Amino acid sequence: MSSELFDYIEADLATNPISVWLHRLQMLQLAKVNLKLQALRQCGDQTLPRFVTPAVGSAHVQEIVIAGNVALRLLICRGPLNASLPPSNGRTRAPYPAYEFTLLLGAEERDGKYVPADAVVQAEMRRQAILNDPRRR
């Protein structure tokens, strides 16, 4: 089953910071990000071990690591509006990939630290904003 991906949208309901971040990337970086997003869309977060990892400092924000000359981090969350697959055939579900993810923030990692330094806090605030106003994705 494929996953749906959503971008976080600013309060003006027009500005898409994920799109802005992607447009700033070099061609090779963008290609790597697109491959990761394609895998996430096709297989969810169960694609490979450590494909999606918890972001330090948040119970709900996860990161996708994009290796390269500049270490990119795409901060995402499951849902947050619909964080898991619906049960099929009335049975209890095994841990399948979530079918809905929201891209919250693009960042870099330098010397083991996020740039911007408060990236996880910003991502969590964006997740909360979506919960408060579902139009923000």
Question: How is this structure best described in words?
Answer:
This protein starts with a strand and ends in a 5-residue tail after the last helix. The chain is an alpha+beta fold and 137 residues long. It contains three helices and six strands, in the order E-H-H-E-E-E-E-E-H. Strands 1, 2, 3, 4, 5 and 6 form a six-stranded mixed beta sheet that branches. A hairpin with a 4-residue loop joins strand 3 and strand 4.
Count of runs of 4 or more consecutive helical residues: 3
Low-confidence stretches are: 87-94
Counting helices, strands and paired strands, the structural category is alpha+beta
Strand content: 25-35%
Proportion of residues in helical segments: 25-40%
Summarize the biggest pleated sheet. Answer: 6 strands, mixed
Shape: globular
- Give the rounded overall mean pLDDT: 87
Task: Quote the distance from N terminus to C terminus.
Answer: 21 Å
Task: Give the beta-strand count.
Answer: 6
Rg result: 15 Å
Secondary-structure element order, N to C = EHHEEEEEH
Question: Which descriptors would you attach to this protein?
Answer:
single chain; 137 residues; alpha+beta; six-stranded mixed beta sheet; 3 helices; 6 strands; 28% helix; 26% strand; globular
